[in-house]
Amino acid sequence: MLTYEKWLNCIFGRSINQPFFTSKIDNLDADTNFKFFYETLVNSGSELLRFSDKQVNNGLYLMFSSSQGIVFVLKEPSVPAQDRTAAIRAIKILYTDCFEKRARPVLSHLNEPRASPINSICYMLWDVTSINTWGNKGDCEYFDLCLEVLEFALHLENPACIESALHGLGHMGSFGTNRRIYKIIDNWIKSSPTNYSQLLKYAVLAQRGYIL
Question: How many CB atoms lie within 10 A of CB 138?
């Protein structure tokens, strides 16, 4: 039986150049896979400390990438809606306990130097995953939950986390047509939480959906 420790090592413990085989993960029932996914998010500040920045970056790509399929445990019908809701909200903990502490305070959209490997998944999380495209399914309001997570991340201190939130909101805003997203970003701009002029410029682009 695949324990949580073995699951973690399957996802994060490989060398960056080792191929990933999903057979062990695929053989787990959905409820167990969900439990391990959720536990990793909630304990990302402690459970991932044993892994290098490269391994954490690679492992989070695997967890969230729609092409790998692991992330789809977050929409598994056999998992109660309240548990799926809690798991998506737990991405806030990933931001505070992992990204905020381990990503370097540099901007990826400008290719600023001295980035940690974790800056990659921090910046690209909402490109890699499809959670924010699942909409509101009645029993679980994925779109609204993702907005909640991104608005939260927007008010963290690490510029990399703020950039990640703006990036995600920009993708979800559909070229400036979503007034809720425009307002979230506008409120952040008006609060002037940072003197980082490049982030403020990026925020304006994100309001219009003009981000890569």
Answer: 7
